[in-house]
Design a protein that fits this description.
Structural class: alpha+beta
Radius of gyration: 22 Å
Helix content: 25-40%
Strand content: 15-25%
Number of strands: 18
Oligomer: single chain
Shape: globular
Length: about 475
């Protein structure tokens, strides 16, 4: 079988110890079982056409990884393009899922990952490389009241935007629509783009929160995780704000920012959602003595494409940098206007979203060893806006279940083996925002109280 080797980059290596699973809960209104074999066949056709998905991760020099991609016109019958596993439960789905309507305001507990991810699925790039398993995994769990569909890819090859490209391809194949199959190459266009750049003359200051790793920093991170998970009861949960609810909140804050700055500055939806979560979590902590440290992630695709002429719009692999908010006392959050906090997010992103920061990070991270800094007396948060990734862009009506069947009830993003505490990621679903967060129990209590006030039509404390 003929193959080519596609080199991965330092950005992929940074995430090579994780996998990403998109978990969809689908309910047939007619009660007819969904045709999961049809989905399996569609996934297989996508991997057959987009040979990157059918490739195998291989280890190369200096601890890096690449993808061995089959290029033969016909794949051997024994070659697996993806993994397909199933399970069945005789009891209903363990979560009560709310209706995701434009007016919905809901808290949803984190679902069991086993509903979407088979225990045999490799998590890390090194595990994939040693076992030579397919990168793309499909796991189906059938319940009496719904079907759970899990798609898993190694984070060391695909990021959320890349996963969105895969979801788009599967949706098109499943619903018999055309999609553009990415071309194959033995060179990585991201490295080509960086090589064409002049060395940055205005080097950004070294990050305070995301630095070259060391044993001491890693040990501090482990201790911090233990404190949050085991002593503070950090747990994952989801907030859903329906389209009308989210739009009303966003438009109100946008108007306030425009009025406060005389139209000279503005905020976007992601700034408002991030600020709302952060402020709501600290409503009951006016006496906190800690300092708040916030790091956010942004994709460099459009910035690098414009600067180099290399089209990275649909680049499916990891490409991200970060922005950092100025430190501020946690005790100030309960009384800090939401518009001011949202504007802090926008200003930080605008300031740090530069080509020099992207190029400098690429040049100084060749060993793929970076860690989040945890400091005593500081609360560290990470925000990830996945609303442009299109992770909800798949329709399961083509799997049967009668008219209106195959309706999506939820779309969960699961990272394995473990996520950082106080990590917040949000994506669009049914026009609203599906916000996943890992917070202390006390902060979840504060946030959920705000949700209850909103549902009751009371004056919100987050304002």
């Amino acid at each position: 079988m003929e193959t080519i080797t596609f080199p991965l980059t330092v950005y992929d290596r940074l995430d090579s110890v994780m996998s990403i699973t998109m978990g969809y809960v689908v309910q047939s209104e007619s009660g007819t079982p969904l045709d999961v074999d049809k989905l399996d066949q569609a996934v297989g056709r996508v991997a057959e056409k987009w040979r990157m998905l059918a490739g195998r991760i291989v280890a190369v020099e200096d601890g890096a990884f690449a993808v061995s991609i089959p290029t033969s016109a016909t794949l051997p019958s024994s070659y697996r393009t993806h993994t397909f596993t199933t399970s069945h439960s005789s009891t209903p789905f363990p979560l009560s899922l709310p209706a995701l309507t434009p007016s919905s305001i809901a808290y949803i507990p984190s679902p069991p990952s086993s509903s979407f991810l088979h225990p045999s699925t490799p998590i890390t790039s090194s595990s994939h490389a040693s076992k030579q398993t397919p990168m793309l995994s499909l796991h189906i769990t059938t319940y009496p009241d719904c079907t759970c569909i899990g798609l898993t890819l190694p984070h060391g090859v695909f990021d959320a935007s890349g996963f969105g490209e895969v979801v788009h391809a599967i949706d098109a194949e499943l619903n018999e629509r055309h999609w553009d199959v990415p071309t194959l190459s033995s060179s990585n266009p991201l490295e080509t783009a960086f090589q064409s750049l002049e060395p940055p003359s205005d080097l950004p200051p070294e990050s305070k929160y995301w630095v070259a790793g060391s044993r001491a920093l890693f040990a501090r991170l482990v201790v911090s995780l233990a404190w949050e998970y085991w002593w503070q009861g950090a747990e994952e949960g989801i907030v859903f704000l329906g389209e009308d609810v989210a739009n009303a909140l966003i438009e109100r804050v946008k108007k306030e920012v425009t009025e406060e700055t005389g139209g000279k500055e503005w905020v976007l939806s992601g700034d408002v959602i991030s600020a709302w979560v952060l402020k709501a979590a600290y409503l009951n902590e006016p006496q906190s003595r800690n300092t708040l440290e916030v790091l956010g992630m942004w994709s460099g695709r459009d910035l690098l494409s414009t600067a180099t002429g290399t089209d990275l719009t649909h680049y499916p692999h990891n490409l991200q940098s970060h922005y950092e908010l100025p430190s501020l006392p946690c005790s100030s959050l309960p009384t800090l206007p939401l518009s001011t906090l949202a504007l802090s997010f926008r200003r930080a992103l605008t300031h740090d979203r530069t080509l020099s920061r992207l190029a400098h990070f690429h040049a100084t991270s060749k060993d793929g060893d970076r860690t989040v800094v945890r400091k005593w007396g500081s609360d560290a948060w990470v925000f990830i806006n996945r609303s442009q990734a299109g992770l909800d862009g798949i329709g399961f009506g083509g799997l049967g279940g009668g008219e209106g069947g195959g309706g999506m009830k939820a779309a969960f993003t699961i990272l394995k083996p473990m996520e950082l505490d106080h990590a917040v990621a949000f994506q669009k679903l049914n026009g609203g925002y599906f916000i996943t967060a890992i917070l202390r129990k006390s902060r979840w209590a504060a946030l959920r109280s705000e949700l209850e006030r909103m549902k009751a039509g009371e004056t919100p404390r987050v304002a």
